[in-house]
Prior knowledge:
Layout: E1 15-19, H1 23-34, E2 38-42, H2 48-55, E3 59-62, E4 76-79, H3 84-97, E5 100-103, E6 116-120, E7 123-127, H4 134-147, H5 151-166, H6 174-186, H7 189-194, H8 198-209, E8 223-228, H9 239-247, E9 250-253, E10 267-269, H10 277-293, E11 297-302, H11 312-321, E12 325-329, H12 334-341, E13 355-359, H13 369-375, E14 378-382, H14 388-397, E15 405-410, E16 418-423, H15 427-434, E17 440-444, H16 451-454
Parallel strand pairs: 1-2, 1-4, 2-3, 4-5, 8-11, 8-12, 9-10, 9-11, 13-14
Antiparallel strand pairs: 6-7, 14-17, 15-16, 15-17
Amino acid sequence: xxxxxxxxxxxxxxxxxxxxxxxxxxxxxxxxxxxxxxxxxxxxxxxxxxxxxxxxxxxxxxxxxxxxxxxxxxxxxxxxxxxxxxxxxxxxxxxxxxxxxxxxxxxxxxxxxxxxxxxxxxxxxxxxxxxxxxxxxxxxxxxxxxxxxxxxxxxxxxxxxxxxxxxxxxxxxxxxxxxxxxxxxxxxxxxxxxxxxxxxxxxxxxxxxxxxxxxxxxxxxxxxxxxxxxxxxxxxxxxxxxxxxxxxxxxxxxxxxxxxxxxxxxxxxxxxxxxxxxxxxxxxxxxxxxxxxxxxxxxxxxxxxxxxxxxxxxxxxxxxxxxxxxxxxxxxxxxxxxxxxxxxxxxxxxxxxxxxxxxxxxxxxxxxxxxxxxxxxxxxxxxxxxxxxxxxxxxxxxxxxxxxxxxxxxxxxxxxxxxxxxxxxxxxxxxxxxxxxxxxxxxxxxxxxxxxxxxxxxxxxxxxxxxxx
Length: 469
């Protein structure tokens, strides 16, 4: 496979030639200019932005087709022509002149593959697929761009400044110096910078580098972030939640959380089984406290939203009582996201201005299904499949019409999602006939009828609907 050796080039003040003046040529020219290159564009016609750059003397513009000799004195060249015959001639000249050439989307005429780059000041994150899948590289660039904000560029500057300040006073051997840098980076420097505490971050680094070594290194205080993962689709986690997962030393996760969210991380599963919640929850609380007291950055990754039947408040209380720093990051709850993926709004001004979200099993006592039937227009039941028949009986006894539209959504938001719709009275038999199992969400109310028109997530014909009249 070509292009195995990734490098970063210093193009400052060097002649770099871009052949082609379209959108791609414009983008490549701008990237080279940002890197400090002296850019020359060769093209008979160019975009308005390239025209503007040439008028401002930021680049030189040669208005004609490529001709032999255009690469004379060049360090790097980009062929953005969409013409392989022209690329072949450019490649021949580049090879003869020892000029590094990248021909866009033309691997056969490349000396190197240009990576997709995320720039945050002097921090550059480069993604390369060896020229095979540039669209994937662009997608990964977008994802990394969302994860690494401008504070990372400030961090690089801060570290560089402190390094320059302390390096002349360094009196320890290199391994000790490296160890002190690791101690400095153990601190949540990004969090300090994001909060505007620049001097605090600077002092943490300086103290770590100039420590006298008389006391053993104490790890920074740990922290637990209670993060909602959403109901299944890994794309539903928030930007803040994903950022914390990326920074975590260890992820403590629920049984049904999508493992793609924490691939490559140290992880501890703590899925609770029915009938054992209380004792196991106490053990989870102790585990979170212990990990944090060891100085670790811990993410407690919970399905759905941590405060919607997620026991997040219990865990937060335990952390607060133990004096452990913590953060809570909400996420879409299955109560709203799963119906949305099924094309069912939980409220709609035409049919429903109120919604009740209820768990199918509650430690505080039986659910007042009859009272709920009389008081709200949409009912969403989580974790209720084991008691579906009992729930339906309670709603019917409370006065709901047996013909009220209802649905059961299995594996909501995931590719294997199935939606079973039926009248309320026939919902238990329809779900049993379809073989529905947990995890599943139950929705009762006129809003279910909207699904007939806006079922968007997958082909309704493949969903296994059991529509009743």
